Amino acid sequence: MYQRMIYALFLLFFFIISPIFAQERLFFHCKNAKESQILENYRYQTQIPDSLAKAKEIQNLLQNLHKDGYLRAFVIPKKDSIFLEIGEKFYWLNLQKGNISDNLLQKIGFKEKFYRKKTFRWQEVLNLQKQILNYSENNGFPFASVRLDSIQIIENQVFA
Question: Rounded to whole angstroms, how far apart are CA atoms 39 and 136?
Answer without folding.
Answer: 41
